[in-house]
Amino acid sequence: MAEKTLTKDEQLFLYLVSTFQSSALIAMGKIKNPMTDGFEKNLEQATFYISLLDTVQKRTMGNLSQEEEQFLITAVSDLNMTMIEEKQKLQKDMKAKS
């Protein structure tokens, strides 16, 4: 079965989602910030990027190709799971310090 060639709009949409996804991962300290060459944590900022993607998902419902929709669903789901893990780590660290 041949792979479907994505349209320019589909490619741009996937790039947009990937950009917000990467920004959220940088804010969670999961990948290195290319601007500072370091790892920083700002869960508030990460939440903002996740909220942006969640809004895109809600506002584009029914208007995406199957590939776009699946990519977006996976990105939002993975980021939400990672955020839950990060918040649990933060709570555990806070309990250990007290």
**Helix fraction by DSSP (H/I, runs of at least 4):** over 70%
Order of helices and strands: HHH
Cα distance spanning the termini: 58 Å
Beta-strand residue fraction: under 5%
Tally of helical runs: 3
Which structural class should the secondary elements be placed in?
A: mainly alpha
User: How many separate domains?
Assistant: 1
State the low-pLDDT regions, or none.
none
CA-based gyration radius? 16 Å
- Count of strand segments: 0
Protein architecture, described:
It is built from three helices and no strands. It has 98 residues and is mainly α. It has one domain. Helix 1 packs antiparallel against helix 2 and helix 1 packs parallel to helix 3. The protein starts with 7 loop residues before the first helix and ends with a helix. The mean pLDDT is 94.
